[in-house]
Amino acid sequence: MSICTNPDHPNPLPIEIALTILANKGPSVPEIIRLLDWQDHPDHFVMVLECPSPCEDLVQFMKRHSGRLDEEKNRQIMRQATQAANMSCVRGVLNNLMIDRETSEVKLIDFGCGDMLRTSPYRSYSGTAVYSPPEYHERGMYYGRQATAWSLGVLMFAMLCRHYPSDYDLLLLKRKLWSKPGLSTECCHLLRALLQDKPSRRIGLGLILSHNWFKLVVLLPQ
């Protein structure tokens, strides 16, 4: 069991508990799952978490939508995922999405594969491999906020295209040649900004929600 220290607790805690406590510190926000109680036993720990109902994880949500979301539904999910990622970083945590089936509200959950946010680079990656940033594979290190922006780009691409970005997709994005019928110019631009292979050229985590894609107004047919 991985453990880490928490400034508000005298003894080291299991990392999932420590990170969930940190993520819940301060006013409650709808995008982060609430920790209601926890107990630490000699050989295991117990967490009592908020349980939004009905809910499902991202894989189940995507299957129910035939593996792909339209641009407007994608924007709804991405807005919440980005807000949750920003708030997690503000509270010192880097992280599985759970989605309310009826309202499409997003919550961050499962901090067991997360980590404390720090200013120094990370040299190991414990999340889902397909979301790992290219700088980790090239140099064996990455920074938390830049890697989070990349993972949001992978999420956005997968929800729009029904598959994760391939090396060829990433090459086309880098050369500004990638497009997909039915997607707005702003949508393709944000994907390019998120999936820049050079971290210094990647859009900052705090700037994502200011992108023009989130300002588009969808006109529904009369």
UniProtKB/TrEMBL annotation:
Single GO MF descriptor: ATP binding
Source domain of life: Eukaryota
Transmembrane segments: none
Catalysis: reaction(s): L-seryl-[protein] + ATP = O-phospho-L-seryl-[protein] + ADP + H(+); L-threonyl-[protein] + ATP = O-phospho-L-threonyl-[protein] + ADP + H(+)
Gene Ontology CC entries for this record: cytoplasm
PROSITE patterns (UniProt xref): PROTEIN_KINASE_DOM
Domain Protein kinase per the UniProt entry, residue ranges: 1-214
InterPro entries membership: Kinase-like_dom_sf, PIM1/2/3, PIM_Ser/Thr_kinase, Prot_kinase_dom
SMART domains for the chain: S_TKc
UniProt GO BP: negative regulation of apoptotic process; regulation of mitotic cell cycle
Binding site for ATP: 50, 57
Keyword ATP-binding in record: yes
Name recorded for this polypeptide: non-specific serine/threonine protein kinase
Organism: Culter alburnus (Topmouth culter)
Organism ancestry: Eukaryota, Metazoa, Chordata, Craniata, Vertebrata
